[in-house]
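Extended Data, panel c. Modelled sequence:
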Amino acid sequence: MKTSRGQWSLAGVVAGLVGLAISYVVASVLGVAQSPVVAVAQGIIRITPGGLVEALISLVGTLDKPLLVIGIVLVLTAVFALAGHLARRSWWAPAIVFAVLAGIGGVAVAAEPGATAIAGLPVMIGFVTWVVVLSLLTEPLERVERARAELEAQPE
């Protein structure tokens, strides 16, 4: 009847990936040119020195953008796991992590050429999804933690 850190981290990963998927779907439905992850990738390319970009492209060829997107998703997955782990101690810490990620995504989307006000909607919906899904996934874990604490507090 004990939860593990892995369960909390997994809850964060699942919530994060669901939020990413929802933001991608919303971006597609709204006809937004770039999903938030792709917009971040484009932003990274824009701020990376040209010589480094050219060297990396010569190294990996046309796989440059797919590899960058995969790298971003892997980093996000680690951050989502951290958010889930933080949810074990407080409700606000993962919300801050998700807010920072949403802020980065929002800035990246807004910096895209031809971005409109609607372009930020997928990021906002993704943020809300992260928070709600993490809450739904961690609530049963919190119940187990509370029950365990009550059992341990009972005199023998």
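The two ends are 18 Å apart (CA to CA). This feature is highlighted in the accompanying rendering.
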